Each structure stands twice: as C-alpha cells, then as structure tokens.
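Consider the following assembly input.
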Amino acid sequence: MMPALERIRVVLCAPSHPGNIGGAARAMQAMGLQRLVLVNPSRFPDAEASALAAGALSILASARVVTTIEAALSGTVLAIGLSARPRQFAGAVMPVRAAAPEALRFAQSGDVALVFGTEMSGLSNAELERCQMVATIPTDPQHCSLNLAAAVQVAAYEIYVAATGGTVWSAPTFKPATQDEIEQLFAHGERTLAGLNFLYPRQPKRLMPRLRRLFARARLEKEEVNILRGILARIDQRLLNAKPAREQ
Amino acid sequence: MMPALERIRVVLCAPSHPGNIGGAARAMQAMGLQRLVLVNPSRFPDAEASALAAGALSILASARVVTTIEAALSGTVLAIGLSARPRQFAGAVMPVRAAAPEALRFAQSGDVALVFGTEMSGLSNAELERCQMVATIPTDPQHCSLNLAAAVQVAAYEIYVAATGGTVWSAPTFKPATQDEIEQLFAHGERTLAGLNFLYPRQPKRLMPRLRRLFARARLEKEEVNILRGILARIDQRLLNAKPAREQ
C-alpha cells in the first residue's frame, strides 16, 4: 500500500444503516484505504455491515468508534468534508477530483480525514465547521442524492487515482505488425482483389485507400497480418484451380 | 439532461441481487443517466430493488428486461465492457476515465452501452466479445472486488464528469478584499505589533513576511479585513489606556 493512502481515514458521522458501513469498508479496501472511524453509528458491529463488507472485514474489525467529531479528527492535519450543498461553508469548496491531490499533499505530513455526513441530511454545520475544505461530487442538480457507500466509493476512487495515476494493469500485449509487413499485405490484397475482378487496376477508384483507412484504425498485429495473408493465399489458390470465368 | 447522456444505456448481465439493481438505478439517476437494461435478472421487479433505488423508481419502471446480450446491445454503435481482468480481450483496454470521453464521442452518432457482468464473476468471454472496448476501474490489485452498484456509480460518475466538465455549482461567494485594504491592514498590524513590543522596528526579523504568507494563503475577504482591523483598533485603544508597562 502507498504510505500516503495509509494516512487517509474515512470518517462516517452518525451512519444509520449498517449496510452502508459495510459498503463503505468494501469501497475503501478496493481503493487501498484502511482506516475507518465511526462517529455514533446507530448499530455497530452488525451482521449486515459484515455481509456488505465482503472481503473487507479487517477494516471493520479495526474501525474506531468515537462519540464526537473532534475525537474522529484528532491527529489530522486536514479534514475534508464531503457535501453536496455546502451553502454555509466559508472555506474552500472544490470538486472531489480537485480535492484528491490536496488530500495526498497534506498526507505527506500527517493524517487526513474524509468526512461524510449522515444518510438523510449529510454533514451538519457544526461538522462542516471542523473541516478546512469541502469536496463535492458532481451530480445531476435535479437528483443529487448519492447513497452513502456510493459517495465513499467515488471519493476513495478519486484518492486512489490521484495516488497511483490511475494506471490499469497492463493490457494483454500483442506484437504489432511492422510497416513492411503491412505494405506486403496491401500489395498482396491488391493482386488478389484484381484476380477476383473486384478491383480493376485501370479504374481502382477509392477501394485501396478505404481498406487502408479501415486497417489503420484497427492497428494490425503480426498474427492478424499472417491470418489475412493466409486468407488471400487461399483465394489465390482457388482462383488458379477454378475454370477461368470470363463472364459472370 | 444532456443529449449525449440520454444515449447511454447501462446493461447489467444476470444481476443476482435485486439490491444492486436498485443501487445501480440510484447511481445512474444522480449522474444523469436514465436507460437501464437487464439481461436475465434473477429477480425483477423486486421490493429490495425499489427500496435501494430511493428516488430513482422511474428508471426501474422504464428498465428493459431481455434474455440475450445481443438484444441488450441492439441499436448501439459502441459497447464498453466494464471488467477488472479482461485477460481474454483482444481489443482496446483503458481506464474508465479514458473510456468516458470515448463513450460520449460515439454517443454523438448513436446509442452507447456500458456493460456490467454478474456480481460473482463479472463479464463472460462471450459477453466481452460483444464489446468493442473494455474499461477498467483502477483498484488496489490485491483487492479488486467492487460491488456491482459501486462499479456502476464510478462509471456513471466518470461519464457525467466527462459530459459536464465536473463543475460544481457555485460556492458561496464573498467579496475578496482589495490589495489596498490588505496593505492598510498590514500597515495597521505592524504599528500595533510594535506598540505591543512584539515587533521591534529596528529588528523586525521575519515577522511581517510570515504573517503576509499566512494571510496570502487565506485569501482575505473584505469582511475579514474589517474584523481584523477592529481587533487591532481595540488593542490600540487598550494600549493607550493602559499604564505604560516598561518592565513586564
């Protein structure tokens, strides 16, 4: 795990549904976060929280339960409140994508909290006042209600992408064809299409350029060039064996 | 709603938990997506789906239920599979953040599908083969299990941010102080600090530059300058009234 991610804690203020605590833990684990703090949860521990945590039981087991927001933020150098409507907040308000690098910057020198409010009404003004920054998840203004675990998921995702660059582990790699191989393919194809009387060398129109465009977009691999040349060779062979069909 | 978002459908292949269907619908609605297609859901409609959809019941009500992936993708010009481990996939694999603008680009000319696999095992190879592109949500490689509704949330969020620029509606705005007001504040502060014998004009050290740095970071507002000058004036007044204290 990256050291900066170890310094980021997720604080849930008065979560009322244990399922959301479990969902938040699972979201955190997928994004490399480990430290969960619960301020006055309605029910915890709880079987539903454990069920929705799936493989993230260790996060639930090590979760801290406290009774005040102050205790939850103790030891942090930055607290970022997640809020959809921080109208009362006088500090910096930014989209969560912009807040994520800030969280990581402060995590270089100390603990950072991501603070989430209760399901029904979000963060209270008193809780917001404890935050130095507010991060907002952009949503359709007509429907700005995110589920609590879903909000934790998006925020944790942004932190993880900011920390890691969001690289996906390497895609299956294939050997790209060389330009020489591709040119030989086109030369072969042109001969075969002429043999098929589909291309008329004296009136070629735009056929070859169109085919070039198609295969350029596809970024041919060596193996694919071999397959295509195999198909062309088979057509050539059939044309040789077939009786010459002047008409038709 | 933006026209491009109207052309994006979310396809859930064989979802086994109705709660995830509801969670997906809620995630979609918050991000401006409306069109849900279910391929062979275990249970639908279902009370749990409706409960977790919260305000997104209209998405459930208009969801299409089909029996094949082909039917789900009918009419699309691009299908993007969401997969954590597309080892068998020979096409373009990219992080979901890079895939989102591609989805919107194709949505200019037709319908686009975001295709999600079943909870336990994700997309099958047969389903992946129907996709022209695979999008991956970056996760901690040791814990790459995202809940289905959480994966829909992250993908829909990336689409929404790509479509809208991710601007958050305007923060509460306050009148910033002018440079003149700020310079008058510093001049006043310097006099008062000297009066307090905290600043020695002949040996000022780095006190004023440090204070300037602090207040520069804070981006002072008019109202705040007024408050600070009020505090300084009160200190000045007390110093005048107080007996001169040469020694402590």
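The two ends of chain B are 69 Å apart (CA to CA). Ask yourself how this observation constrains the way the partners meet.
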